[in-house]
Design a protein that fits this description.
With 309 residues, the chain is mainly α. The protein is globular. 75% of the residues lie in helices and 0% in strands. It has a domain at 94-269 and 281-299: MetI-like (MetI-like fold, Orthogonal Bundle).
């Protein structure tokens, strides 16, 4: 296990290097100049040249990139071109908001998704099963921004139950969490249903019932535990998605999280801030996948990571 974790951590370094390189190249080939965006009407040739020199944008691209990599290794991601705020400070502050939103959405997705999937599998072919399957299809197919707008119009503008933008109180997270969690809840319910249907048809489940065990014990201790592997795989990857920040959800609800910070950085061509947010997202995805892989061995003792895997 230790060898496997070490190998995966080495892969993480390679992935992060590749992500930083691709991001840097893409941001330097697309049209637009951050200096012109900063100066606007004051963009005289002399002013542009002076600002470019102060920001180090007149240096060779390779020098700029390797300077960024060397500082990033020391957790120094530079400063924003526009706010002059350290990127790491901005990420730390925005991460708290995204973590709060993601935790709420994740709780909704896990609790309702697993419960609906288990109940649907136990009532296969029934009305509730049809309702869950139909709802899952709609939940997966509906665009996140469309769901967000419908929630804003229905529960925010028409009924006035919840705020529709910004963070004013704890209630401000309700609609964004629902909008963000619906798709993941639908995915988890489908995977849970499929996995449970496969498990409850196994011989050991029939044996457990034949021994006279209570149905609750059979389902929770024997069936659900053995159905967790695909559920954990999906839930782990979904956690990475949520923590990375949903750009559309945060943008629609004006939630100042990682996703909105990334969108703003793209629009303003704020390269240091964009590189920082992209690296953050890459780290979250890699670590969440690593956590999922390691958790397999604890959920299912039959799984072992051997040397050379």
């Amino acid at each position: 296990m230790a060898t496997y974790i070490l190998k995966r951590l080495l892969q993480t370094v390679i992935v992060l290097w590749g992500v930083s390189l691709v991001t840097f190249v893409l941001m330097n080939v697309v049209p637009g100049d951050p200096v012109l965006l900063m100066l606007e009407k004051r963009a005289t040739p002399e002013a542009v040249e002076r600002i470019r020199h102060e920001m180090g944008l007149d240096r060779p691209k390779t020098t700029q990139y390797f300077d960024f990599v060397s500082k990033a290794a020391r957790l120094d991601l530079g400063r924003s071109y526009f706010t002059k705020e350290p990127v790491m400070t901005a990420l730390t502050r925005r991460f708290g908001v995204t973590l709060r939103l993601a935790s709420s959405a994740y709780a909704i997705a896990l609790l309702l998704g697993i419960s609906a999937g288990v109940a649907s599998a136990l009532q296969r072919g029934g009305a509730f099963d049809s309702l869950v399957r139909g709802g899952a299809v709609i939940g997966i197919s509906a665009p996140v921004f469309w769901v967000a707008i419908i929630l804003q119009m229905s529960f925010g503008l028409r009924l006035g139950w919840f705020p529709i933008s910004g963070i004013r109180s704890d209630w401000s997270f309700v609609l964004p969490a629902i909008a963000l969690g619906i798709r993941y809840m639908a995915s988890i319910s489908r995977v849970t249903r499929t996995s449970m249907l496969e498990v409850i048809s196994q011989d050991y489940i029939r044996t457990a019932r034949a021994k006279g065990l209570a149905e609750r014990v059979v389902i929770l201790k024997h069936a659900l535990k053995n159905a967790l592997i695909p559920i954990i795989t999906l839930a782990g990857s979904e956690l990475g998605n949520l923590l990375a920040g949903s750009m559309l959800t945060e943008w629609v609800f004006a939630i100042p999280g990682i996703g909105k910070l990334m969108v703003d950085s793209i629009l303003m061509r704020d390269l240091p801030m964009l590189q920082g947010t992209v690296l953050y997202i890459a780290v979250v995805f890699v670590l969440s996948n690593l956590t999922v892989d390691i958790s397999y061995a604890f959920i299912d003792p039959r799984i072992r990571y051997l040397k050379g895997d």
